Amino acid sequence: MGNVVERQTRGSVRCCLFGSFEVCGNMAGLELLSDQGYRLDGRKATELRKVQARMGVFAQADGSAYLEQGNTKALAVVYGPHEIRGARSRIRHDRAVINCQYSMATFSTAERKRRPHGDRKSTEMSLHLKQTFEAAVMTQLYPRSQIDIYVKILQSDGGNYSVCVNAATLAVIDAGIPMRDYVCACTVGFVDETPLADLCYAEESGGVSSLALALLPRGGQIALLQMDARLHQDHLETLIEAAMTACKGVSKVLDEVVRQHLQEVSVLSGE
User: How do residues 251-270 score in pLDDT, each as one tens digit?
Assistant: First the structure.
């Protein structure tokens, strides 16, 4: 992974760029897009994977959600705001502390191996989620408190970070914690001069230059941008614009899920 660069972007939300923007040769993975413009799973270049989600799946948590994006499946639970546990030095007198933990189920991939809690990949993903939700949650409303967000990948088929963000967004809303906006994420790649939205695992592992972007869609604020591969600098703006468009598409789906959940809750409560 390359150096981390922090810069101010749209609305002064922190954007973290991971990786390098060095000029490179021909883009790999051209076979991932047919001459007719179709991808391996039959989608068009800008077409998102099917998203299905449910909120309130765990009564014991303050908020929870289950989300499927294509064949990637994630479960998110939220606890809090509550009193800070552990070292008192973590207390912030002007805002809440957000704690995020990411993990993958042993059965989430075809390769069955034990994934110890706290390994490098999980720690890195947890940090990315923390940065993302610090930009979206109105932490100033809960000083001297803590909000815990736990996300587990139950089945992995690409876009793990993005699916975790989308599932966690629904769980935070289910917990009744105010956010500045939905925070939606999507992973996009670049093949044959064409941006591909919402990559699956085959595309991610096919040598495609890709980036993952989390967006607050109403204001166009980027919460986090992650890139681990090389990309010709001339293509960067195109890829970011494609990612933002995809995130806005995800936002519409999440909004429908929230509205449907509210209707169901209203019916059950007799309102």
Answer: 999 999 999 999 998 888 77
